[in-house]
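Researcher: I'd like a structural prediction for the single chain below. Treat it as a standalone chain; there are no partners to consider.
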Amino acid sequence: MTSLTLQQIADQLDSPHSRDRMIALASLRHIPAADAVPLIKKVLDDENLPIRSMAVFALGIKPTAECYPILVKLLETDPDYGIRADAAGALGYLQDIRAFEPLVRAFYEDTEWLVRFSAAVSLGNLQDIRAQKVLLEALKSDEVVLHQAAISALGEIKAIEAIDDLLVFASSKDWLIRQRLAEALGNLPTKKSISALKFLAKDSHPQVSQAAVYSLDNLEKSDQI
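Model: Treating it as a single chain, here is the predicted structure.
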């Protein structure tokens, strides 16, 4: 398929047909951020929700100085919780440490679990140990998906002090929780991690046992324990 020029993409983003606008957005994938962001902004308020969602995500992978304030505003004020969740996720892709406070506020203040989930995931992406307190709160949630996000994020920020809180989930009935734990422990070089991973390596679910074996192998090869 022939690549579209910037002008052709801009024209397509003005099309009355949502399919054209969607294709145009997808065409920005290989366009430099400085050229792509002005075009992405054209459809941030699109009447078609999937297009808005795609545009918000695109701001996270096409970083310019404009992206951070736009995404924070969407996270804090957009009436659609799906867009707020998209903004939280995009902030994680930006990996701008300024996003720490807005993401923490979203986790504590937003009433929608999807937004809180995205905020927790992105706090992991920022790899800032300050997120440990928030993520431990997520482990106490009634939402299983928040447990999954928090376990992964605690691994990403290398929250070794949270090891005992994490090991509570080693016998979870949810195999996805056990898999996330096995993956997270691979970033937490402690003797307790090794012991837990040996236990999880015998798990009845193949994806859990494979993740545990992989993490165990990485830890045993490292010189950190």
